[in-house]
From TrEMBL:
GO terms for biological process: 'de novo' NAD+ biosynthetic process from L-tryptophan; anthranilate metabolic process; kynurenine metabolic process; L-tryptophan catabolic process; quinolinate biosynthetic process. Keywords: FAD, Flavoprotein, Membrane, Mitochondrion, Mitochondrion outer membrane, Monooxygenase, NADP, Oxidoreductase, Pyridine nucleotide biosynthesis, Transmembrane, Transmembrane helix. Pathway: Cofactor biosynthesis; NAD(+) biosynthesis; quinolinate from L-kynurenine: step 1/3. It comes from the Eukaryota. Its EC number is 1.14.13.9. This is Kynurenine 3-monooxygenase. Catalyzes the hydroxylation of L-kynurenine (L-Kyn) to form 3-hydroxy-L-kynurenine (L-3OHKyn). Required for synthesis of quinolinic acid. The lineage of its organism: Eukaryota, Fungi, Dikarya, Ascomycota, Saccharomycotina. It is found in: Mitochondrion outer membrane. Its cofactor is FAD. One of its GO terms (molecular function) is FAD binding. Belongs to the aromatic-ring hydroxylase family. KMO subfamily.
Length: 466
């Protein structure tokens, strides 16, 4: 008789975990308190449609679970080969991400989630239960009893309760995880939660009005870049959607957002800081979005351990909510699924041992990426405009291209190398940074002593090396 598992949360990570477990012959029930998002009207879906950057770790995990599925669900991705920096005069400056043209990819969150849900339908051993909100777990020696409040898609909120027994529970129920809080009742879980002083608001850039041959007809700016309007302690970003539009997000301190408390102040703020973005979004639309769209908070969650004996485990944002500035939250959550499945396979399904090993192995990587994500806000909103940062990045790139695997820029390790654990990436970066600081000083000294001639010669030599 196959063992039964409750996967809590039919978001991105929960869906992937359900497929991976079903492939290992578990009897899977996937619960979500939402109703089936595939049945929502288009206007409901568009209320909040953050698009995401998926990169090597996410793609590798999808391929690990099912290569053909990965191709199907990633059909609509749009490759982004670098950042496009917009200054206040409307000039654009590209900065490549990879050493050899590697790309991260833009994908619509709802499209990805719905495609994953469609994939689940092919498995007779996966049962989908929408309208079920986990309320409580009673952990037992033989069964884990999960209690849900249920709502029907048609009617108003009901208070009905439902109870089911499972051999174990996989919690993929996001940053405010109930699975996690239920686990905290029975184990000594270290736990830290931190809100960062940053609010995000989603805006929308429509497809190009006139056919724009420069960008395949329908995009008004390059679809193959992640656009950033960096303004030091706040910024605007934009990622392309398959229909020619862009999802744009404003990030800034709460005090700034709260100080923009009238239409005229918001208008002046946008016109002064993001003039070319205003041309793309439309001033009225930008103001409307700022005044009416939800204002999101960003928080980090760290905890340890991630499991209760062989009875429950948490993956994705439930275990490690992070700020979105490295584009790694979902990628890391997908990687959790791959790492856990590999450990389960190595332990021939011995869950108690596998869960212990997962926490021991994964923790250092999860705290590393949470830290990297926090630090990257400064890089995106501020450093990308600093000439010292750009010089160091140039040296980093030249060394990476010349020395190949013996020199790997941090961004490459995090976004393009799923074989390098996050904590290793930090170790390597620390070592390389010391050398870079030294090299940067040599370059600065050479150019100031040797004057402009040396500077030109150096620039020429660096260009030739690329
Ligand atoms: C502005 C922004 C931009 C981002 N950009 C990127 C990016 O570019 N790249 C990237 O990799 N990541 C990005 N992320 C992070 C990414 O969105 C998350 O890491 C990812 O959604 C986590 O997936 P998850 O399945 O763990 O959790 P969620 O997506 O939060 O899904 C949790 C699911 O659990 C359900 N649920 C919750 N509680 C219960 C309950 N009690 N009972 C039943 N069901 C429940 C919810 O309805 C939901 O469906 C971004 C995040 C934000 C906020």
């Amino acid at each position: 008789m196959p063992e039964s598992v409750a996967v809590i949360g039919a978001g991105l990570v929960g869906c992937l975990a359900a497929v991976a477990l079903a492939k290992r012959n578990y009897d899977v029930t996937l619960f979500d308190y939402r109703h089936d998002p595939r049945l929502a009207s288009t206007s409901d879906r568009n209320l909040r449609s953050i698009n995401l950057a998926i990169s090597a770790r996410g793609i590798t995990a999808l391929q690990f679970v099912d290569r053909a599925m990965s191709e199907r669900v990633l059909r609509e991705i749009i490759p982004m080969r670098g950042r496009m920096i917009h200054d206040t005069l409307g000039h654009q400056e590209p900065q490549n991400y990879g050493l050899f043209g590697e790309c991260i990819n833009s994908i619509d969150r709802a499209v990805l989630n719905n495609s994953l849900l469609d994939e689940l339908e092919a498995y007779p051993n996966i049962k989908l239960q929408f309208g079920h909100k986990l309320a409580r777990i009673a952990f037992g020696a033989r069964h884990q009893t999960c209690e849900f409040t249920t709502t029907s898609a048609a009617g108003p909120q009901s208070d009905a309760r439902a109870r089911f027994d499972f051999d174990f529970v996989v919690g993929c129920d996001g940053a405010y995880s109930t699975t996690r809080s239920q686990m905290q009742r029975v184990i000594r879980m270290d736990y830290a939660q931190e809100y960062i002083d940053c609010c995000y608001i989603e805006l929308y850039i429509p497809p190009a009005k006139d056919v724009n041959p420069a960008y395949g007809g329908k995009f008004s700016i390059s679809p193959n870049h992640l656009h950033i309007w960096p303004r030091h302690n706040y910024m605007l970003i934009a990622l392309a959607n398959a229909d020619g539009s862009f999802t744009s997000t404003f990030f800034g301190p709460w005090s700034l957002v709260e100080s923009l408390d009238s239409t005229s102040k918001i208008e002046a703020f946008f016109v002064e800081n993001f003039p070319d973005a205003v041309d793309l979004i439309g001033l009225d639309e930008a103001v409307y979005a700022f005044e009416n769209h939800p204002k999101g908070a960003l928080m980090c969650v760290e905890c340890k351990p991630y499991h209760v004996a062989g009875k429950a485990i948490i993956l994705g944002d439930a275990a490690h909510s992070m700020v979105p500035f490295y584009g790694q939250g979902m990628n890391c959550g997908f990687e959790d699924v791959r790492v856990l499945m590999q450990i389960l396979d190595q332990n021939h399904g011995n869950r108690a041992r596998a869960f212990d090993e997962y926490t021991a192995q994964r923790h250092k990587d999860l705290v590393s990426i949470i830290e990297l994500a926090k630090n990257n806000y400064k890089e995106m909103s501020h450093k990308v405009t600093s000439k010292w940062f750009l010089l160091r990045k140039k040296l980093d790139t030249i060394l990476g291209r010349t020395l190949k695997d013996r020199w790997l820029p941090l961004y490459t390790m995090v976004s393009f190398r799923a074989d390098i654990p996050y904590h290793k990436a930090i170790e390597v970066e620390k070592r390389q940074k010391r050398i870079l600081v030294y090299l940067q000083a040599v370059v600065i000294l050479a150019t100031s002593v040797g004057g402009y001639g040396v500077f030109k010669a150096l620039r020429k030599a660096l260009r030739r090396l690329q």
